[in-house]
């Protein structure tokens, strides 16, 4: 399969300095201006990439409970193993609550190489994950669902499933990014197509509403595929199969993520350099292109300056990322 990336996000940081400041504090230019600007742009990119979490379906963890044990991380590793994700290069990104709960949880381990760094506030590689703290981890607010939902009709496949049993006339029944499972529908290993023994997670791709009869059509990802090269489930959901939504209605849960490199993509392109300015330049660092433009305001004796990036992000490979809710 293939996908496309829309490069439409332009982030910038602008600042200015006077001729006096440029004359007297030129040696502090990088520390006072460039470093804070670069941090802001990096934060913009980081936030954009992490916002892709709601396009991925795999999810483990206990909603409302911060992960605080090796078993919590092992659940992420197990799910990635079940989807045949590569063992190398695995990364786990935790929000502050989860990170410090995990540090506290592993500080009592007898394994010295794990416990000692945790006491210093640093999590070593655990469960084959390099672990990082990130304040930009985002939360999923579960829809206002209710009732006893089931699948309405047997042998449904694809990305649109007809259901009923929901609370009638409910707007915002399920939100984009909500995760559901269908009873008896297990995931399969994409290499041998054998059942993993775990229910397959599906993510809601558009807001679902129920009608006066409690009926709702759910748009999901990935599409239910029971045969062929892209088979992803053990079987289609039978009629009357129970639908389970992860998390309580109208409640927000942070979505920490464990992933391999190719789960998501970032594309950054060099921007055009304008003419008629005091100074303009581009710099490429690790495939991220930054443009700086500087002008001069003769009336106020200041030099306005801005640094820009132009980029796009996309979710690539659903099987290479697993959400760890808390």
What does this structure look like?
With 326 residues, the protein is an alpha+beta fold. The chain has five helices and 19 strands. The chain has helices at 19-24, 29-50, 70-82, 96-106, 112-119; strands spanning 9-18, 59-60, 91-94, 130-133, 139-141, 147-151, 158-166, 179-182, 186-188, 195-199, 202-204, 216-224, 243-245, 252-259, 264-269, 279-285, 288-294, 302-315, 321-325. Strands 2, 3, 4, 5, 14 and 19 form a six-stranded mixed beta sheet that branches. Helix 4 crosses helix 5. It is elongated and about 75 Å long. It starts with 8 loop residues before the first strand and ends with a strand. 32% of the residues are buried. The model has no long low-confidence stretch (mean pLDDT 92).
Brief digest:
With 326 residues, the chain is α+β, with helices and mostly antiparallel strands. It has helices at residues 19-24, 29-50, 70-82, 96-106, 112-119, and strands at residues 9-18, 59-60, 91-94, 130-133, 139-141, 147-151, 158-166, 179-182, 186-188, 195-199, 202-204, 216-224, 243-245, 252-259, 264-269, 279-285, 288-294, 302-315, 321-325. The protein starts with 8 loop residues before the first strand and ends with a strand.
Backbone shape: elongated
Largest sheet: 6 strands, mixed
Order of helices and strands: EHHEHEHHEEEEEEEEEEEEEEEE
Percent of residues in beta strands? 25-35%
Residue share in helix: 10-25%
User: What is the radius of gyration computed over CA atoms, rounded to a whole number of angstroms?
Assistant: 24 Å
Count every helix, treating DSSP H or I runs of 4 or more residues as helices: 5
Uncertain parts: none
* Extended strand count: 19
**End-to-end gap:** 32 Å
Structural class: alpha+beta
Rounded mean pLDDT is: 92
